[in-house]
Amino acid sequence: MSGSENTPVSDLSTAPDRADDETGRHAIAAEILGETRATRIRLGSLESERANRVWWDADTEDYHRTHGEFLGVDTPEGEFVWCPEGLHEADVQLLGPVAGRDVLELGCGSAPCTRWLAGQGARAVGLDISAGMLQRGLAAMAASGRTVPLVQAGAENLPFADASFDIVCSAFGAVPFVADSGRVMREVARVLRPGGRWVFSVNHPMRWIFPDDPGEHGLIAMFPYFDRTPYVEVDPAGRPTYAEHHRTVGDRVRELVAAGLEVYDIVEPEWPDHLDREWGQWSPLRGSVFPGTAIFCSRKPR
Ligand SMILES: C[S@@+](CC[C@H](N)C(=O)[O-])C[C@H]1O[C@@H](n2cnc3c(N)ncnc32)[C@H](O)[C@@H]1O
Hints:
Strand order of the largest sheet: 4-3-2-5-6-10-9
Low-confidence stretches: 1-11, 13-20
Order of helices and strands: HHEHHEHEHEEHEEEHEHE
CATH superfamily: Vaccinia Virus protein VP39
Number of strands: 10
Helix content: 25-40%
Mean pLDDT: 91
Bound molecules: S-adenosylmethionine
Number of domains: 1
Structural class: alpha/beta
Shape: globular
CATH class: Alpha Beta
CATH topology: Rossmann fold
Strand content: 15-25%
CATH architecture: 3-Layer(aba) Sandwich
């Protein structure tokens, strides 16, 4: 079974950074949203968008207090970190050459990646559903002096003309949170130019089967890989305040192919020896046994 309404959040969740409520990492969100409970219920696109806007607005400050430095949010240049395993785009170049290219980042948050891309010579645009996250990006830009255009919108309805971008990318932004990720793939295919790349990182789908716990408990398989019922948190009135949608590896590949894109790699970053930092359910312990992140690399045929 995939969990019941009485299952504690830390037992049910597979979402990034959700296992550390008891350490106070989401203290401000908890104050704003009240006592929430975790459940598994079907949720459509609009409800998921609303829930995640509510969550990321509420968690902006805590998220940046906990992860801002690792992500390079307040560095003058910005930084492009793909995942809690600390993979930097500067080292792996999954996007290929970006200088002079039109690049769109989905779920950019406070936009350290978009700013980094601009610093590499890209014409970079960041898009996110959360005004709170984007405002944090504006503050970082004001301090650093490097500005990039930011757009508030949902990834299922991209407010851009066909064939506007050479590259679209996302580092744990948007894709795990939308109800209709197939639609995101079609939207990306639409706004990409022929030959353009679409590269995105998400929780590795196999993580869905484990409790969201960086310790030993998080090594025990408990939930069915094939259960796509979303993980949802609801407030005392029953309103969703967070939603995460699971897809299997096969689902993700099929959605990309159905959108007319070619999948040419799925990168599964290994946990690096030097990294002893935890990020929610990501930890050196779990990282030494199985992957935490999958980065899907695809392109639009010429
Ligand atoms: C884990 S954060 C990642 C942010 C950024 N990429 C980073 O590495 O810090 C997820 C981001 O996805 C955004 N997001 C969630 N649902 C979205 C949607 N439907 N459309 C666009 N952005 C969304 C959230 O607002 C949040 O900023």
